[in-house]
Amino acid sequence: MRTTVGWQAEGPSTTLRRAPLKRRDLRPDDLAVRVDYCGVCHSDLHALHARDGARRHPLVPGHEFTGTVTETGPEVTRFTVGDRVAVGSIVDSCGECAMCRAGQENFCHSFPTLTYDGVDRHDGSTTLGAYAREYVLRDRFACRLPEGLDPAAAAPLLCAGITVWEPLRALGVGPGSRVAVVGLGGLGHLAVKMAVALGADTSAVSRSPDKAGDARRLGADGFITSTDPEQMAEARDRFDVVIDTVSVPHDLGPYLRLVALDGTLSHLGHLGPVTVQTTDLLVGRKKLSSAGSGGRPATTAMLDFCAEHGLTADIELLPSARVNEALDRLRHNDVRYRFVLDMSDLD
User: Fold this and answer.
1) Residue 174 confidence (pLDDT) above 60
2) What predicted TM-score, i.e. pTM, was given to this entire model?
3) What whole-number distance in Å separates Cα of residue 30 and Cα of residue 76?
């Protein structure tokens, strides 16, 4: 075993404390990666607060990171020491099911191995995330970080970015498309940037009128205040695609009514149960869809697209020692739009 250092929670605690961590010795197709920057995701917050005292394993969050290859296994040919890489929320899959063969490892029939709090497919150990100075993973689940992308601001692309990229591409968004993005947070601000870069006529929808300026700065053509009945009525049946990134339970009806004939609402932010009135789908033959993370081909394509268009997340960069502050502020929505941790203070 090899050792590194990172931030972990033990037992029922939601406070992360610096601690030594064990990483496996490299398998033939593994990479060792020095973690340089790691994004802070709402999923990290949810994982910490879902803990209970019965858990046997510590929790080390972090599943959107960029770093530098420091060592390779003997069978690795795609990377060499010194290469810059980017890693998301999946670090292994069965490789054999229909989804894996289609390049959608995120939907692996036997469930993908998650970057943290997952189960290693070989030894059954619990994966520890990238709030740490080193990560070891199977080489095929690392992506080359394109030149020109700032590694700190690129880290959130590996979770928030790919989460909105997949439905935008699957739904054929491009020139001539009319897109609305509901919620201007970590996912939503990247959805606006990507939809604009894809050539769509893009509007942002938010409860907060004070985000209108941000929406314009991000490139949005329009802004709709969702708490204004008149604005919502004027926007009825307007959009081919509505990307819903709101992370708390909410009524989908008002947003389905924004969807145009034969259009789609892609519900991404809240993963719990939803209730939908059939008439909100029936009137206009509207569709409700969702998506989660992305496979290796889509992630590579997304990174290349972002490099071509100079597109990264709007971030607040903090030393990793301030991770608990970042999580507390995230819980209170006090960030525009993504925290990223600089892991160099773990040296």
Assistant:
1) yes
2) 0.95
3) 7
